[in-house]
């Protein structure tokens, strides 16, 4: 039995572990169409040669230090806002890390779905959905989390090991098990359309919610003081400004860090 | 393209919600704009003709179906692939990757034709028809609405 196999109903139950691959998402997208692949099947890699972030961005990770995996899921959100799926996955990761750590780590979700520890990035999510015409057939949820990495260059990033000041490496499979359990919990909630529970948890852990901070509006290039009020069901960011309210799409606003 | 094909194309455009269509193939370029009142009057006339035989005496019936037949065939054969969501339309799987399809590409049901990105959810859209791409209706990296036609496909 693979040590990564998770104590869950389906997420992380069946595992394919690879020392190296180009990207777990790319591999999963290809292999999930094979016959014996069941929902929840998970691909884990020690190392990705072409790890991917948001469209074209690369994801860099030191070999063997981190958790890099992709899960095969079939969301039933045909006529519901699709962004609930993204919110549910982010909630699952945050709760899983909290359960694992047995303490209240300052874990938050930076809109729309980055995982933050304090003011630094701990991980990210890359969701790729497959549609046959107008039918959402399945999704590959790619997750990358910094567990034991110690060098991040100029990036505003951190790992669990560094944040917790541990001298020993953190066993990655323990973190993985906790995350699989919580993702499964929130995924089920999402499948039964109990969106309020997702909304509450997501906003309780939303980075910079109800705080005044600096942002840059891409269109006007203007830097302004803003307060995040909500991430709506479409995933748009509702911001209070000095002169009113405004909804922002992903590429329309930049978070300014001190 | 012969006269019959052009007639079929015009019939299709007349029935479609598209205001403007331009098609370019080897050695031929057709551009049709459907924004004047005159155009809608011209294309509205075939409809009463087609409807008339139903009310007419059976004796007139044999001639009518023959005339009406080509029009349904045209609209049956050309279909659109629509966007299942609001988002940004991308023709390639990644910034430096080749486009999924070009005008003239043969596609099968199940073949990916584009990506629609919505709030970091990347949606690969597969064709649900088999045929040939006749026209790409949206510019790369531009916003699309729910149900907006993306591709015009001639069914095989």
TrEMBL record, chain A:
CDD domains: BPL
Keywords, in A-Z order: Ligase
Top enzyme category: ligase
Enzyme Commission number, as recorded: 6.3.4.15
InterPro entries for the chain: aa-tRNA-synth_II/BPL/LPL, Biotin_CoA_COase_ligase, BPL_LPL_catalytic
Keyword Cell inner membrane: no
Gene3D superfamilies documented for this protein: Bira Bifunctional Protein, Domain 2 (3.30.930.10)
SUPFAM superfamilies xref list: Class II aaRS and biotin synthetases
GO CC entries: cytoplasm
Record-level Gene Ontology MF annotations: biotin--[biotin carboxyl-carrier protein] ligase activity
Domain BPL/LPL catalytic residues, every copy: 1-191
Domain of life: Bacteria
Pfam family, one: BPL_LplA_LipB
UniProt cross-references to PANTHER family, sorted A to Z: BIOTIN PROTEIN LIGASE, BIOTIN--PROTEIN LIGASE
Protein name: Biotin--[acetyl-CoA-carboxylase] ligase
UniProtKB/TrEMBL annotation, chain B:
Pfam families: Biotin_lipoyl
GO CC annotations, alphabetized: acetyl-CoA carboxylase complex
Keywords from the named record: Biotin, Fatty acid biosynthesis, Fatty acid metabolism, Lipid biosynthesis, Lipid metabolism
Domain of life the protein comes from: Bacteria
Coiled-coil annotated residue ranges, if any: none
InterPro entries: AcCoA_biotinCC, Biotin_Carboxyl_Carrier/Decarb, Biotin_lipoyl, Single_hybrid_motif
One Gene Ontology term of the molecular function aspect: acetyl-CoA carboxylase activity
Gene3D superfamilies: 2.40.50.100
Pathway note: Lipid metabolism; fatty acid biosynthesis
Record's keyword annotation contains Lipid metabolism: yes
BP-aspect Gene Ontology terms: fatty acid biosynthetic process
Segments forming domain Lipoyl-binding: 78-154
PANTHER family assigned: OXALOACETATE DECARBOXYLASE ALPHA CHAIN (PTHR45266:SF3)
Functional summary from the UniProt entry: This protein is a component of the acetyl coenzyme A carboxylase complex; first, biotin carboxylase catalyzes the carboxylation of the carrier protein and then the transcarboxylase transfers the carboxyl group to form malonyl-CoA.
Protein name in the entry: Biotin carboxyl carrier protein of acetyl-CoA carboxylase
Species of origin: Sandaracinomonas limnophila
Taxonomic lineage of the native organism: Bacteria, Pseudomonadati, Bacteroidota, Cytophagia, Cytophagales
Gene: accB
